[in-house]
Specification:
Blueprint: E1 5-9, H1 13-25, E2 32-37, E3 41-43, H2 49-53, E4 62-64, E5 74-78, E6 81-85, E7 90-93, E8 98-100, E9 103-106, E10 110-112, H3 120-123, H4 130-149, E11 158-162, H5 166-186, E12 194-198, H6 210-222, E13 225-228, E14 233-237, E15 240-243, E16 248-250, E17 253-256, E18 260-262, H7 264-268, E19 273-274, E20 277-279, E21 292-294, E22 299-300, H8 313-331, E23 345-349, E24 355-359, E25 362-365, H9 366-393
Parallel strand pairs: 1-2, 1-9, 2-5, 9-21, 11-12, 11-17, 12-13, 20-22
Antiparallel strand pairs: 3-4, 6-7, 7-8, 10-18, 14-15, 15-16, 19-20, 23-24, 24-25
Helix pairs in contact: 1-8
This protein binds flavin-adenine dinucleotide (FAD) and nicotinamide-adenine-dinucleotide.
Flavin-adenine dinucleotide (FAD) binds at residues 10-15, 36-39, 45-46, 48-49, 80-81, 107-109, 127, 167, 170, 263, 265, 296-297, 311-314, 316.
Length: 396
């Protein structure tokens, strides 16, 4: 048999970890592995709330693939995937190049879920890539500069964060930390700046431990975030948002953190999906296609109670590792191992030195949570790029 061709789409947590596992386990020339990604870098999505608010430079969350991929084992191709033809075993890129495969791994990540809410796609920003967060930071700064030239337009200084899930909460913490700095830089009276976090559900962080949610809301409220809980956003306009109550909040900046769905390329390519995610089998394969694996936010997996696992980096990493190992097993005619997530807990930041989390069965608060989160970031960096990358990126 000729050398099997493995094609990996996306160098996020799921795709990159699949590639690195293959790099580690495959012998030279055992397979022809190609990793396709939009950019020449991997980005640390779990940090993007920081550059979005401007509390860290965007480049900090960027890791050049060149430095972590062994080119003698993995071919890297910069390209934008346009569609997948699973019956023909091909993938078409935006520039019309067509790539063929024996085994495909889909790790194309997620897109904002807007639930059809009018105006969100057009007028709201979302925290989804290095380029997207650069724009959010620049826009907030531009709004401060604009206000200085039109001082009657105080709404330029209002920021609406739509959704108080983990992304909305973490971004609120960073924005709260950035505001004093911006006020100083632009000579703006801090009392004129308003930051609203608006949540549809009866609580922030729905489904999370109540004591930790109360702690998070207390910390963020003290930092100046105004929560509007149980208040769905009904529409987004060029002027701000309209709530289900009919109230309008005028705002220069609206950032939508109301949830995600799997990359739409997957659905458009004919795979059966729920909210853009493929309900994969125990080996992370798409129904009907034994040679197509799906990892990360594009994959939907369920726990013992039949409830879907939330899309997280933690699970994407483990899926990537499992997928890489199973591809090696397939090539060597060995048995594959079913994917079972090993959840270590949840840690979320609330701005500098503050956080919440559950590690094992233990709740953690404040600086302990923040420190544990840094530790988990370091472990990830070490996993993908060794001590060198961990030391280069560490920010205490
Ligand atoms: P991604 O990491 O999004 O990677 C997808 C990759 O595919 C990217 O490299 C992208 O450029 C590429 N791509 C996309 N479309 C194309 C295309 N058409 N052609 C070519 N390439 C393409 N989870 C946690 O477990 N812990 C956390 O602390 C945490 N914090 C978060 C903080 C924020 C602000 C956000 C937004 C999310 C956070 N998450 C966290 C969730 C986590 O980031 C995602 O679940 C994770 O990134 C999913 O990994 P993935 O590999 O599926 O996709
Ligand atoms: P999410 O789905 O977890 O939260 C979205 C929030 O927006 C929900 O609370 C929802 O009720 C609210 N919402 C939806 N429609 C609304 C409306 N019309 N008006 C107001 N609020 C509305 O999405 P997310 O926060 O982007 O997180 C995506 C995934 O990434 C999740 O699985 C999450 O666990 C993970 N994540 C994890 C971390 C962490 O572990 N630190 C950080 C960020 C994200």
């Amino acid at each position: 048999m000729s050398t099997p061709k493995i094609l990996i789409l996306g160098a996020g947590y799921g795709g990159l970890l699949t590639a690195l596992q293959l790099q580690k386990k495959l012998n030279y020339n055992e397979a022809d592995v190609t990793l396709v990604n939009k950019h020449t870098y991997h980005y640390i999505t779990t940090w993007l709330h920081e550059p979005a608010a401007g509390t860290a430079p965007a480049d900090h969350a960027r890791v050049e693939l060149d430095g972590i991929i062994d080119k003698s084992k993995i071919n890297f191709l910069k390209g934008v995937v346009e569609s997948i033809q699973p019956d023909e075993q091909t993938v078409t890129l935006k520039d019309k190049r067509v790539l063929s495969y024996d085994y495909l791994v889909i790790g194309l990540g997620s897109e904002p879920e807007t639930f059809g809410i009018e105006g969100l796609k057009e007028h709201a920003f979302s925290i989804r890539s290095i380029n997207a967060v650069r724009q959010i930071r620049e826009h907030i700064e531009y709004m401060f500069a604009k206000y200085k030239n039109e001082p009657e337009r105080t709404e330029y200084l209002t920021i609406v964060i739509g959704g108080a899930g983990f992304t909305g909460i973490e971004f609120s913490g960073e924005v709260a930390d950035r505001i004093p700095e911006l006020c100083k830089e632009f000579d703006v009276d801090p009392s004129l700046v308003k930051v609203y976090n608006i949540e549809a559900a009866p609580t922030a962080l729905p489904g999370f431990d109540k004591e930790l949610v109360d702690y998070a809301m207390d910390v963020l409220t003290r930092k100046g975030i105004q929560f509007r809980i149980n208040t769905p956003i009904k529409q987004c306009t060029p002027e701000g948002v309209i709530l289900a109550t009919g109230e309008e909040i005028k705002a220069g900046t609206v950032v939508w953190t109301g949830g995600v769905r799997g990359n739409s390329i997957v659905e458009k390519s004919g795979f059966e999906v729920m909210r853009g995610r493929v309900k994969v089998d125990e080996y992370l394969r798409a129904p009907g296609y034994d040679n197509v694996f799906v990892v990360g936010d594009c994959a939907l997996i369920f726990n013992d109670q039949g409830r879907p696992y939330p899309p997280t980096a933690q699970i994407a990493v483990q899926e990537g590792e499992n997928c890489g190992s199973n591809l090696v097993a397939l090539i060597r005619n060995d048995k594959m191992t079913p994917f079972v997530p090993a959840l270590q807990g949840t840690l979320a930041s609330l701005g500098k030195g503050e956080g919440i989390g559950i590690v094992g069965q233990k709740k953690v608060f404040g600086s302990t949570a923040a420190l544990l989160k840094k530790g988990s970031d370091l472990r990830y960096l070490y996993k993908i790029g060794g001590v060198g990358l961990a030391l280069k990126k560490v920010r205490l």
